[in-house]
Write a structure and sequence with these properties.
The protein has 171 residues and is mainly beta. The chain has 2 helices and 12 strands.
């Protein structure tokens, strides 16, 4: 009976994560150049991996969209001019990047937690074009945790994230 409760509890947690992760549509990220990434069909099994890589040599560039997150793994879809892939990726290696919007009038705010309340504000930095490695994501709210230039991890709100490079920078 104790094992049955344990199994039901785990199933309820997985179900809730799946349901709550569709509250927000998605988060757009970028793949680092020259770093191969393995995408798996199943979040719990590493069989059947597909390897993708953004490369300047052959003009392969992946647009990545993250749709859900379960136990540190994200379900994503990657699209390039040559292929479409989808599957699960583990966030531990910081190979995905987020593009920040350049702002002249507003500084980018870095938070200690994924909330827009001022009590979690750590610091403000000048807005400039840059890519930052993704440490964690919150699909429900759209907040992304990045490793900033000082080596520390901070959360950034969706309003400073660029949906796609071409939408914010033109080329």
């Amino acid at each position: 009976m104790k094992n049955m409760r344990y199994i039901l509890t785990i199933c309820a947690i997985l179900c809730c994560q799946s349901i709550f992760s569709v509250v927000r549509d998605s988060i757009n990220l970028r793949l680092a150049y020259g770093v191969p990434v393995s995408i798996y069909k199943n979040p719990y099994c590493k069989k059947g991996a597909v390897t993708i890589e953004s490369s300047l040599d052959n003009d392969e560039y992946f647009y990545l969209t993250v749709y859900k997150k379960v136990f540190g793994k994200v379900y994503l879809r990657g699209v390039s001019e040559r292929q479409i892939v989808h599957g699960w990726y583990e966030l531990k290696k910081e190979q995905l990047y987020v593009v920040l919007k350049p702002t002249e009038s507003l500084p980018i705010r870095l938070y200690s937690k994924p909330y827009a309340e001022n009590r979690h504000l750590v610091k403000e930095v000048e807005g400039k074009y840059d890519l930052y490695p993704v440490v964690d994501v919150n699909i429900q709210t759209g907040w992304v945790s990045i490793r900033y230039e000082d080596g520390k991890c901070y959360w950034i709100s969706p309003d400073v994230q660029c949906p796609w490079y071409t939408e914010c920078y033109g080329t």
